[in-house]
Amino acid sequence: MPGIIEPPPEPGAPLPPLWKRLAWFAGIAAASTTVVAVVAYAMKAVLPSH
Amino acid sequence: MDVDALLLSRLQFAFTIAFHIIFPSFTIGLASYLAVLEGLWLGTRNEVFKTLYLFWLKIFAISFGMGVVTGVVLSYELGANWSVFSRVSAPVIGPLFAFEVLTAFFLEASFLGIMLFGWKKVGPGLHFTATVLVAVGTLISAFWIISANSWMQHPAGFSILPNGDLIATDWFKVVFSPSFPARFAHMTLAAYLTTALVIGAASAWRLLKAGDEAESRMSLRMAIGMFAIVAPLQLLVGDISGKSVEQLQPAKLAAIEAFWDTRTEQPFHIAAWPDRELAGNRWEISIPKLGSLITGGSADAEIRGLKSFEPRDRPPVAVVFWAFRVMVGLGIAMIILGLWGAWLCWKSAPERSRPYLMAAVAMGPAGFVAVIAGWVVAEVGRQPWVIYGVLRTEDAASPLLAGQVSLSLLGFLIVYAIIFSVGVLYILRLIAEGPVAGSHELVDEDRAPGTPLAAMPEDPG
Description:
heterodimer; A: mainly alpha; 1 helix; B: mainly alpha; two-stranded antiparallel ribbon; 14 helices
């Protein structure tokens, strides 16, 4: 688990431009939502339908 | 419907929900704690807060995952074991669960990804936003689940169709049923206390084993602050919640207090052996008149006893009576721990008091036990109804055979024992190592998640 958690930037390290940070923010959120949706639909698919 | 299958279905649901509730009651508080830690780090740049954040984030991620897995099982069970309940109540209660997924679970799951993988990519401000959103998501989740459960306790805002199905007529009344505000506050505070007790125990354990450690000192003092403020507050909120039980579910209140006869000057039973066959207590240790005073506000208040209800409408008494006493007893122990800790903070330093540290370690699981005991009071006390006054539990189950339910129950027992053991042992191992141990093992830039190097061993040779 420690290996996959990203630590904060070093003090004084330059931050990426705002548009890039916002894009990462939206991108990671969208990717996480997609993973949840895929798992949810996969679980729904194994349910018998009547 | 086979009676044994009903009993097994009830046992299975009780087992799986008691198992599940451990995780959300921990992660609700932990998400807020993480938001506070990150906010303090942003405000002060004190590295202690950052180290604590990264440490508890790992434990949060594992607990969140275990909470999701055990929660999904409950949704399946509602359909598989409680199909009549699902069919009858789905038009009312289904949207509440759907809103929980749409407004809370997706919020938590989406922004947890940023919490774990995105600190350098999104920067400190947006990362803090993600942490706050996850914390808010856990509270929204609690809101909808408690709303659904409160509606089952005190259904309102619905009509019964000719075929027996329910339909919502007033969504505001459905979502905000009479007992909801007090129960939501009670559950949220219980979650905060549960988390504080675990953090306090982990910090105390480190201080006992590893000596002086700035991170453990800080987290112990933060936990003491929570015990000292939230535990007494919880007593007041619990009393308000109890008062609503007196008005809305008098049979549950009578079971909680083991009152059999309707009378004024009810005694308060400190301990008793309630017996449904006897319709009385085999023995009791009581304080005269205090029962009426606590439950009715006056020693002259007349409080209904269980004998005023038909035998088939009475909940199991001994389980409810003792579960309530376990919950309240642990709550009082939490208040003592908080006041003792606050006194130590004021006089000297709690981290130097070995008896206090040992007491804090011993109280680590108390929040979980109290939460489960509280749910036993709420759910068993509602019996014989699954939707109070509307649908009996015996009429809500699926037409299954005892053998079928036995197999699934056995499967749950085995799988959960493995999941629980592995998950909890891993969390305990992390706690034993302490917050500082893991803080130097974090990923470097070139081995960021998703890159080919991340999948490579550190030393391929």
